[in-house]
Amino acid sequence: MKKTISSFAILMAVIFLASCGGKKFHVNGNITEAKDSMLYFENMSLDGPVAIDSVKLSADGSFSFSDDAPTAPEFYRLRIANQIINLSVDSTETITVKASYPKMSTGYTVSGSEECATIKDLAIKQINLQSFVIGIENNPAIGYDAAEDTIRKVIEQYKDFIKRNYIYKQPMKASSYFALFQALGQRLIFNPRESKEDIKAFAAVATSWDTYYPGSLRGENLHNIAIEGMKNVRIMQNKLAESQQGIDPSKVHTSNIIEIALPDNHGNMRRITDLVGKAVLLDFHVFASEGSTQRIMKLRELYNKYHSRGLEIFQVSLDPEEHFWKTQTAALPWISVRDADGVDSKLLMLYNIQKLPTFFLVDKTNTLYKRDEQIKDLDAEIQKIL
Q1: Is 117 among the domain residues?
Q2: 37/85 same-domain check
Q3: pLDDT tens digits, 230-241
């Protein structure tokens, strides 16, 4: 009997140690002027806030929470009533927050996470924007039409600033994801259901998360939002075109990829969305760069090997000199297009391209499958999507 108990005790100890061995992150600090208030620690999941823990604050306002470290950036918040502090976590960091109630939403300090500090900056900017909009709406000296026009312009200026300084600058960051979902009341500031430019912002972050956090639920959610937005915008455009010009909406198809529409080396407009039904190697290239000849030879081998089975190469040149590009591509059998903006091309931003050359694989549904950094065996990955 003693041996049985001893073995059971050892087994329980092993299980206990294993359960305690998981990686954790920690959030601690002090929120003063909030004695006896309930402080809630919540995960901002895709389905809404989920309570993780709570504590009744003492006079010094100290608190300490922890949870399992996420595998991709995740979002949390500290909340007392309607006062909220937004946080992001992507590893086992320890985040320290100090604040004073009831103005903790704007008056807090955060250390241990640069992303949390950036999210604070974004939250304060959003609060200031909302205050300005409310001020315009409540100003009796400004007529309704003038107020709406002013608000629209201010929101567009805000969006442009956020895109340039946060979203497009570092689309892989949690703060860029956070920025996409800022709202004025119940209205999203970035509206992918109606704005083509806002869809691009969602698509840029989605593409970046594909690389840095492959398979993450939030990355997939961004793709779904961008794709649905593309469909909605096309439906609105098609209805407008139909009413004005009699265009049949059924002739315009939707796509799961950021459109690339550029002239090829024969002067014909080529679109990557026209390649639905084919596996595509989407290549961004500069023919004037070192190593270009060797890369083209490798692409020729792949093209000769798989083209008859359904592989197409869609190569985007960013060469500054058009004549040179045409000379270099004259004998190439695949689709060769050129962006005259060169290395200033918006495509580099939308596809989150940090280096050249870079390639992506696109499956037969016209959906980005993988990018070069995620591929160890190119032949094997091509065969999977053929």
Answers
A1: no
A2: yes
A3: 766 666 555 544
- Three-class SS state of 113: coil
CA–CA separation, 313 and 383 (whole Å): 14
Enter the pTM of the model.
0.62
> What is the reported pLDDT for 4?
41
Band (243; pLDDT cuts 50, 70, 90): very low
Are the C-beta atoms of residues 179 and 171 closer than 8 Å to each other?
Answer: no
Average pLDDT, the chain: 86
Which tens digit of pLDDT belongs to each residue from 12-30? 444 444 444 579 999 999 9
Asked if residue 255 is part of any domain, the answer here is no
Do 269 and 373 share a structural domain?
Answer: yes
Are residue 98 and residue 136 in the same domain, yes or no?
no
Structure tokens at 159: 């969006």
- Please tell me whether residues 106 and 158 are part of one structural domain: no
Q: What is the Cα–Cα distance from 54 to 78, expressed in whole angstroms?
A: 9
Choice between 126 and 196, residue whose per-residue pLDDT is larger: 126
Residue 94 and residue 182 in one domain = no
DSSP helix, strand, coil percent of the chain (3-state; round to 5): 45, 25, 30
Residue 246: what pLDDT?
Answer: 46
5 located within any domain:
no
The SS3 call for residue 46 is: coil
pLDDT tens by residue, 97-120 = 999 999 999 999 999 999 999 999
Cis? peptide before 102, omega within 30° of 0 = yes
CATH of the domain at 25: 2.60.40.10
Instruction: Give the pLDDT band (50/70/90) at residue 193.
Output: confident
Q: Tell me, what DSSP letter sits at residue 69?
A: P
Are residues 106 and 142 located together in one domain of the fold?
no
Q: What is the pLDDT of residue 13?
A: 46
Spatial CB neighbours of 256, under 8 Å, sequence gap ≥ 6: 223, 227, 365, 366, 367, 368
Q: For the CA atoms of the chain, what is the radius of gyration?
A: 26
74-80 and 83-89 strand pairing: antiparallel
For the chain, the domain total comes to: 3
User: What is the domain range of residue 165?
Assistant: 127-238
Beta carbons of 80 and 40 less than 8 angstroms apart: yes
CB 74 within 8 A of CB 86: no
Residue 357 lies in a domain: yes
CA atoms within 13 A on the CB side of 67: 20
CATH code (residue 301): 3.40.30.10
